[in-house]
Amino acid sequence: MALSDALSYLLVPRRPVPRLPLAPGTCSRLLLLRLDGIGDNVCSFPALEMLRRGLPDAHITLAVGPWAAPLYRECPWINELVEWDTALYGVYRNRGIGGLSCDLEMVRTLRRRGFDAGIDLRGDLRSIIPLWLIAPPARIAGISCAGKRLLSDPLPSPGGPEAGRAAYLARRALGLPAAPPTAVRDWPRPRALERARARLDRAGWDPGAPSVALCPLALWPWKQWPGSRFQELAGRLKGELGLQVVWFLERPEQAAAYALGDPVFCGPLDEAAAALGLCRLAVSNDSALMHLAVAAGCRTVQLFGPGEAARFAHTGAGVELLHDGSCPHYPCTQRGSCENRSAGWCLERIGGDAVFASCAALLAADPGRQG
């Protein structure tokens, strides 16, 4: 027995009573935890929509990290958004685990709300522990290792794509039959769209020209396709396919390394999502913008290196995946020691011709769509 399992047996000597399924008459206040990355949050969109439809009158509170909070402006599927920069995930941002006292204060605040149920959409002990401390009677997560004892309804981890995992939890929580995963889609963002258009206009964007979004950045350097190849691709997309290139960057000063006179979009997440919906095509590293482009309905070429493409890449119509998994250490982890990863080996093996061919193929498959 793992140490964490032994500890959970000490904390919860008697197995909690199962509470599923959730129903409108028994769940009027629902807490959702999605305390990890922006892309993970986007992959939870189908689950949020499903829970709102299944519990139309429930007050749904979603707790996310502050970095993901702008994503949920104008979201019709939740009633309340709580920003929670939990110390238990601080290790991912090189912050250590300082701030536990703030976590305990947040736990006390949420516990006083009297939630009927809580779902950890990640299925991780670092968010299951806070869920247990908040103490809604129904505590639900998909989990394959430690922490089952802290949940009233531990569900087997479904595996597969991330978007399907969150939707599986929502479906099981509502007592719905199994079904194929649904595509990730965004909600209408009229106010963000207005601001995004204004931002693009100031950058010199031509709304009458078909646009391609190039997203060359990612959270980790080893997830970034070489910038020089993005520049070469931009030239071919403009010269051979007649597309207007829009660079999606974090800061205006980064334009000098990429844009070469093209329009540059730098803005908050909700505006980025709206702006991507105006583009006919997107080419992106494994990043938040990749997930947002797919959710916005933009045809997307996904460039994966050491990351888990089987889990985080999107499939189906309108998307292409390019990645090389031949490294013996694949898939790498953030704390792995693979020399190939630090040298950019996996992404270097994706050639510019292959990316351009994928762009042309996606455009040819849907020539009538404007963007």
Verbal overview:
This protein is an alpha/beta fold. It has two domains: 3-173, Glycogen Phosphorylase B (Rossmann fold, 3-Layer(aba) Sandwich), CATH 3.40.50; 190-365, Glycogen Phosphorylase B (Rossmann fold, 3-Layer(aba) Sandwich), CATH 3.40.50. It contains 15 helices and twelve strands. The model has no long low-confidence stretch (mean pLDDT 90).
Short description:
The chain is built from 15 helices and twelve strands.
Keywords, please?
16% strand; 6-stranded parallel β-sheet; globular; Rossmann fold; 371 residues; alpha/beta; 12 strands; 15 helices; single chain; 2 domains
Please specify the SSE layout and strand pairing.
Elements: H1 3-11, E1 29-34, H2 38-43, H3 45-54, E2 59-64, E3 80-83, H4 100-111, E4 117-120, H5 125-134, E5 138-143, E6 153-156, H6 162-173, H7 190-202, E7 211-215, H8 227-241, E8 244-248, H9 255-258, E9 264-265, H10 269-276, E10 281-285, H11 288-295, E11 299-304, H12 309-312, E12 319-323, H13 339-342, H14 345-348, H15 352-365
Parallel strand pairs: 1-2, 1-4, 2-3, 4-5, 5-6, 7-8, 7-10, 8-9, 10-11, 11-12
Helix pairs in contact: 3-6, 4-5, 7-10, 8-15
